[in-house]
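idk why but the lab printer keeps eating my pages so im just putting this in chat instead. protein + protoporphyrin IX containing FE:
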Amino acid sequence: MTGAPGLARPAGSLAEAMRWEERVQHGAHPVVLPFLRRVAARGPVVRVPGIGVVVSDAALAREVLLDAATFTKTGPGSPADLWTPVLGPAVLLNMEGADHARLRGRLAGLFTPRAVAELTGPVLAAEGAALTRALVARETVDLVAMAGRVAGSVICRMTGLPATDDGVRAAFRDAQEIVGMVRLHRRRLTGAQVRRARAVLGRLTAHAAIAYREGDEATVPGRMRGLGLSEREALGAVGAFVLTGTETLVSFVPRLAALLADTGWDVRLAASDDPLLAGRVVGEALRITAPTPAMLRSVEAPGRIGDVAVRPGDRVVVATLLCCRAAGPFDPDTPPPAAVRQLWFGAGPHFCLGMPLATVQITAVLDALVAAVRERGPLRVVDREVARRVLIPAYASLRVACA
Ligand code: HEM
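predcted complex ->
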């Protein structure tokens, strides 16, 4: 680390940062989280009637995620129960085997560095510059609103919706509404929810269908056609991207900023000339926040998880958050144990397809924050509000300013 003038400030409080993270988690899941913690205290794998087999150990979680012959995303109690009625039968997150691998292979072309840069470049350049400018001008910025704008703009670019201010807001609201229907304890959406989710998703994908039919490779649906996807697959994939890639980032980006401000790591980053440090900080913040707090599987064949025997039809709840958190509090100086590494993005055949897109968006906001800290001084949380009873723990608002 090199010293940078004007950046000296006492190290922030790690305990305070972890307390805020706890409030965010608790705000979202005031009942389920304490319950899961009590379950995890009984052992790394515990069968809980009515819930499933709860796994809270990173190495065992990884074994489950890697063994797609025994643990699938298609059987009873799996994500397929939730999403197939809304998205259709073939959208990655409810597929397994050769069909899944083939569709993933085709979609990979959308997540190359070049494709991701084309998709997000203009949005991120404009939002990043505006963020730095505002903080340097001593303005207060709500990072939740900012992350929502970025997510809405990326959805617009993905679906071909016009990215006007209203269009961006509406796209984000729609995505939020669908994700908001899901609860950790609920296995299926109700009939009314499915109808509503389909209608909302239909609004989002109506433009995507036009773009697909026109086959314009400058649009994501047009590119999907070029990559050999049927119209149904393409629209399903757009829906899956909107559902998986919106709330996760709107949850994570403000929490990353809060962790930096609360611990003083914003100043360390701003004063560092280590090109790898930012990546370590982001990885560690993802471990602490685990924006996808749980992953579900259905047991397809008799097997074991650790000491617990499982049988076909069992539901497995991989408690990602607890697996990741067991490695201790936020500490970018210490690499996490191998079993935990990147578990926040999953493992095995369903590993997060959008990781490159997520990384680019996170890095752009982080760079913009650090640039402001370098120029104007430490990041400060002016005020914040925790989101209550949401699926993905988040701040409802996080207003920050520089020194
Ligand atoms: C910080 C942000 C993100 C986190 C923490 C995250 C986390 C995850 C996790 C844990 C899984 C695996 C779920 C499982 O195995 O059950 C997953 C899958 C997936 N993610 Fe992400 N994700 C993020 C952002 C994104 C973005 C921006 C996209 C945009 C396209 C995306 C698209 C997907 C897709 C399509 C899958 C399903 C892959 C498959 O089933 O083959 N994710 N994500």
